[in-house]
Design a protein that fits this description.
It is built from eleven helices and twelve strands. The protein is globular. About 35% of the residues are buried.
């Protein structure tokens, strides 16, 4: 056996430490590096999504959130505008942990045909791969797939499905997931967009406040299951401006397509007398059955009031509280939506012409 001196052992220890440091080194930046001119960052979707960011699109069941994000994915993969916003063409990866292959493929086919595109796009998908993004192993597996596809935009459907067993209301449970999403976005310079569910009680995203705190963009999607109008409300953004934009969702069973088109909603719509009555009544009453609303309206007949209620609900001004069937004879209960609340406040201030 060859004898080793103390110097030999010290040198080996230093070498071992250097090797370990090089594998997991923490990069420290100097002030001169921080103040040096930075390359211009190009939007993936103008004024909405940047590379190296984490975004959350949250909506209730039936709000068309998955349809809208698949449409977004196809627009980015092809370089088409999305709801009037220019996109930067790049490969897109869809991480489907919810729909399954049959449903995903069917929906994507409708989206592609609706946009007039073909299959020659850099758009890829994994289906029910079982990613657990709370673990480093799961995050590393997804990182490998992103590198294989060279994706610049990653869409995860849905957030809860890549953290199976986690308590969404627990900071301890959700932070490993959100930190791994952040790490993937930062290290690969990709945008990671997750689809999430909203809370039935208040219509806000479901889970811990740590979820919203960890994302760069939070968009709430609102649309009734039988409505064509889709509202996108930017609740939080670190890089753009908060605001609301709209789309119209249309399915054509004959052409087997899904189309999402930009639509402009007037900031000062002209409501009819009966519409104003209903908005003001619900603004004061908080919620009411359809019969109670009809009886409260004096500017038109009950039958006309019922039609107006349905029209306001279809336009996104009202939302139904009791979405599930409670048996024969159950009366629909309505309240103002977030959009309706904004309209009610403006009506109170008499800001509408």
């Amino acid at each position: 056996m060859t004898s080793q001196t103390v110097d030999d052992l010290l040198q080996q220890a230093v070498q071992s430490q250097n090797n370990a440091s090089s594998q997991g080194a923490i990069k420290v930046y100097s002030l001169s590096e921080m103040l040096a001119p930075q390359p211009r960052v190009e939007w993936i979707i103008q004024d909405l999504i940047l590379p190296g960011s984490v975004a959350l699109f949250a909506g209730a069941p039936g709000s068309k959130k998955t349809w809208c994000l698949l449409n977004l994915a196809a627009c980015v993969a092809s370089g088409k505008d999305w709801l009037g916003r220019p996109t930067r063409q790049m490969p897109v990866l869809i991480v489907d942990e919810e729909s399954g292959r049959r449903r995903l493929f069917d929906r994507m086919g409708k989206v592609i045909r609706g946009l007039g595109l073909n299959d020659n796009l850099p758009l890829y998908a994994t289906v029910m791969a079982g990613f657990d993004l709370r673990s480093d192993e799961g995050a590393d597996a997804l990182t490998d797939v992103i590198r294989q596809t060279n994706a610049g935009l990653v869409i995860i459907d849905a957030l809860a499905d890549v953290a199976v067993g986690a308590d969404e209301n627990s900071v301890k449970d959700v932070m490993p997931l959100m930190l791994n999403l952040r790490r993937i976005a930062e290290e690969l310079d990709v945008a990671v967009c997750s689809i999430h569910h909203t809370n039935k009680a208040n219509g806000q995203y479901r889970g811990s406040t740590a979820i919203a705190g960890a994302v760069d963009l939070l968009v709430t999607i609102r649309s009734g299951s039988k409505e064509a109008l889709v509202q996108f409300e930017i609740e939080k953004t670190r890089d753009g401006e908060p605001g609301t934009f709209y789309g119209m969702a249309q399915w054509d069973s004959f052409a087997d397509t899904f189309i999402l088109t930009e639509t402009a909603q007037s900031k000062t719509p002209k409501f009819s007398a009966s519409e104003v009555e209903i908005l003001e009544y619900l603004g004061a009453a908080m919620q009411a059955t359809i019969d109670e609303i009809e009886q409260a309206v004096t500017s038109c007949s009950p039958a006309r009031a019922r039609r107006v209620i349905h029209a306001l609900a279809s336009g996104g001004w009202l939302e139904r509280v009791n979405l599930t069937s409670g048996g024969r004879g159950q009366k629909a209960i309505y309240r103002l939506s977030k959009r309706g609340e904004d309209a009610y406040e403006k009506l109170r201030a008499r800001s509408f012409p």
